[in-house]
Amino acid sequence: MIKHESIETNAGLLIILTMIVISIGGLVEIVPLFFINDTVEDVEGVRPYTALELRGRDIYQREGCYLCHSQMIRPFRDEDLRYGHYSLAAESQYDHPFQWGSKRTGPDLARVGKKYSDEWHVAHLVNPRSVVPQSVMPNYPWLLEHELDYSDVQDRMRALKMAGVPYSETQDEYDRNVAQFGKVVADKLDILNAEENLMSQALANDFDGQRSRITEMDALVAYLQVLGTMVDFTKYNEGYFAEFR
Predict the structure, then answer these.
(1) What is the distance between the alpha carbons of residues 120 and 124, in angstroms, rounded to a whole number?
(2) Cα–Cα dist 192/157, whole Å
(3) What is the full DSSP assignment across 183-196?
(4) Contact by Cβ (8 Å): 189, 51
(5) C-alpha to C-alpha distance for 190 and 157, rounded to whole angstroms
(6) Which one, 51, 102, 132, 187, has least CB within 10 Å?
C-alpha cells in the first residue's frame, strides 16, 4: 500500500496518478455524449417555443427568475406529490440553456403552465404578496409598463436554429416541421413570419389584459403558461409513483 506521504513527495508518481484521476473524470463526462440519442425519450407533444414564448423566456432569464425557481422535478415521492410527474429529458431538448436550476427559494415551475389564470400571473408578477401573502419575491411592475421589443426575434430564432432547434426558413425545413409537429405548429416555427406570429398570439390571448398593447408581461406569461403543458402526462401515470396517487 502506497502511503499518502510517498505520493506527495514523489513528483513523478503524483503527476501520473493525477492524470489517471483526470482521465477517469473526463471519460465520465464525455462517454455519455456518444449515447445522447438513447437518453432523450421520444415524447409526443414537445415542440420548440413560439416567437412570443421565446421572448418571454428571454425576459425570464433577464430578470433572473432561474435564481429562485428550478424547472426540474426530481424522481422523488415528495416532489411527485407536490409538483407532478418527474421531468423528462425530452422536455428540455429545445432549451438553450436549460432552466433546471439547483435552488428553490420559490416553487419549481416545470408544471406551472395552466395551473393559474393569466390574471393571477399578472397580479403575482406586479405584486406577489397580493396573491401569496408570505411570498419573498420582488415586484416586477415594469413588465406591464414596458412594450415588448421583438425587432430582433428572427435573429434570436436563427441563433437557436444554429444550436439545433428546428425553426424553419426554407420550404424543406417547413415541410419537415409539418411532418413532425403538424401544420398549426409548423406555421408558428417559421422564422420569416415570426413577428406576425408573435403579434397574432399576443393579441389573440391578451395575456396581460391590455389588448391594445403587447408588453413584456404578455411574453413572460405566455412562456409561463406553456411550461409543462406540451406532454400529456396522463399517459405516464404508470410511472414510479403511481401507487401513491
Answers:
(1) 6
(2) 10
(3) HHHHHHTBGGGHHH
(4) no
(5) 9
(6) 102
Element (H, E) at 79: helix 77-83
Model pLDDT for residues 92-127, shown as the tens digit of each residue: 999 999 999 888 999 999 999 999 999 999 999 999
Task: Kindly provide the residue ranges of all beta strands, DSSP E only, lying in the chain, ordered along the sequence.
Answer: none
Cα gap 111→229, rounded to integer Å? 7
The pTM (predicted TM-score) of the whole model is 0.83
DSSP state of 130: G
Cell 429545445 sits on residue: 94
Please choose, from the candidates 61, 42, 137, 47, the residue with its C-alpha nearest in 3D space to the C-alpha of residue 99: 61
Residue keyed to cell 415528495:
78
pLDDT digits (tens, 9 = 90+) for 119-175: 999 999 999 999 999 999 999 999 999 999 999 999 999 999 999 999 999 999 999
| DSSP symbols for 99-113 | ---S--SS---TT-T
